[in-house]
Amino acid sequence: MTAPKTIEHLIKTVTLYAPHADLDMLKLAYDFAANAHRGQTRKSGEPYIIHPLAAAQILADMRIDPTIVTATLLHDVPEDTLVTIDDIEKNFGSEIANLVRGITKLGKLKYRGVERYIENLRKMFVAMAEDVRVMLIKFADRIHNLQTLHSLPPQKQYRIALESLEIYAPIAGRLGMAEMKGQLEDLAFQYVYPKEYQRAKKIMEEKLFGKEPYLRHMERGAERELLASGISVISILGRNKRLYSFFQKLIRKDNDVAKIYDLFAIRILVPTIADCYASLGILHKLWKPMRGRIKDYISQPKPNHYQSLHTTIFDDQGEVIEFQIRTPEMHEEAEYGVAAHWHYDERGSRLPMREVRWVKELAEIQKEMLTKLSDLEELKVDFLQTRIFVFTPKGDVIDLPEDATPVDFAYHIHSDIGDKCTGARVNDKLVSLETPLKNGDIVEIIVDKNRKGPNEDWLNFVKTQTAKYHIRSSQKSNLPRWIQSVLHRKKEAK
Ligand code: MN
Hints:
This protein is of the alpha+beta class.
């Protein structure tokens, strides 16, 4: 995160894992985007180009295919500037143009009611089915937006973070992209559950304080033993559990940290499946395994295709520690999932393209997300929080901002109904027109056909732009004609 955000740094990063990449194209895409976004700034005041550059750097740091990194530099150009997809296609060819087209179709995050939200989600699933690489760009885009979330107003922070946690991260998880999922979750966590975030962080720090030398000691011990048994260990690395995943586990284990055995784990990569099982046996000879904690996800992969052997052992000091044993191919799968094909490993090679299994899973993910959305609505802890849903007597749903009144409701139905409303029944009770509506209210508007127009005082309590607009414009037409013509002339003079 502290890496300098320059095109030179990006090029250097890409060169390290993909020396044969088209670096001229990368540089060209940067110049092209910087030029198109010239004069635009982000909420933080920085030049806009910082954002696509940072998103591209996030993917490059994960060693993602340079073509996708190049498209990421251009991802906001068609939506935010005068430059079109056709211009991009002329300069960068159809593959990059198609990726940019895909991301543009998804649109920007603009929450405008749950129906449009679900519509946007559907668009996302369609784009995902057409080309799953688009999701990599979307995730990187979102990760950078989360990294810079502090410059937005709190309401927006909460909504974007919650959406990342409840929608984007689970999709990344279902696609098997653990790295993306983990980053999205840890960045969003502090905005959605600030208190819990602080608590989880504190517990984690206390538990891990001073443990580094111990972890290194265990890594070396395991490696020595495996090598002595003739296993060519490719890598062995300890890692802490990610904060949000730790927090979720803490809840599942009734807040008992002692029941969390994978607070840190040592990951071992060995060449073959046979080596995986052999390594497990060697570790168990060295340290006593904990009963019921040996998991064979190689013969029985997780639903998202995750494969590994897991075991928790008691070390010499009676501490528990988890080992995860897998092949490099399984590791690629575990970290990058369906995107593994576009990820370069340590040796600069990539997994072969596999069947397009995500298309099959898409319907399933979509169903899950939509169920989740309706759950959230019930719990009232979601992006819908700033919106309420009320009903017409016929049962049609109307989506209004919080504290909207019967007048807002009336104008939402039709401007004539707004102009002529004189009263309202909410849940069969007569109420005054300024009564704030609540989620689930059934609203009936009483209309007086002889009414001349709205009351100017309504402006003091209405919440929607529609209502304000209609009240104001009818006020104007009630003005004496000579004032109207002055206003008209003034407008023309502008
Ligand atoms: Mn963007």
